[in-house]
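Side project, low priority. Logging it here so it doesn't get lost.
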Amino acid sequence: MKIIAGVDEVGRGSLIGPVYAAAVILNEKIDRKLLKDSKTISKDKRELLSKYIKKNSIWVIGKASVKEIDKINILQASLLAMKRAIKKLKKKPTQVLIDGNKVPDLKNYNLKAVIKGDQKVASISAASIIAKVARDKFITTLAINNNGYGWEQNFGYGTKQHLKAIKKLGINKHHRKTFSPISKLRTHNI
């Protein structure tokens, strides 16, 4: 029997926090028509779908930290988070479908990149939903002790509100130091 895992990452473009990846092997009974790219689903619906997927699949989360992102770059950190997720799966998949055009360096796995996979493949959509809900919850928790940046709304992305707050409050340990405009601000001692 073919066991297919879908993998996707979230948080690549954020200025803060870890990048998350999820790997999901869907149960045959799951309603695949409900699964779409996480970016096209409302927050409330995403949270409900995440619970539904978790009950009806094998799923795991992999992460790469801010330090790792700054050390090896965001692409390599995203691939590392995916690799960690795939290796944590309780069942070894016969094929791993990964959103995008690159796959992590992982021996003894049948890996395939699928461009716009989060829109085309149900298990990748499921991974996208689980990863986004998990990362959003983590960032919302970070926002509690880091007032003023608006992370509970912008999730660390470079919105006007967040950029204004960085200029006012400065950069903290959760910011990715190699990301623009953070890297530029650091050179100006902000």
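Brief comment: The mean pLDDT is 94.
Revisit when time allows.
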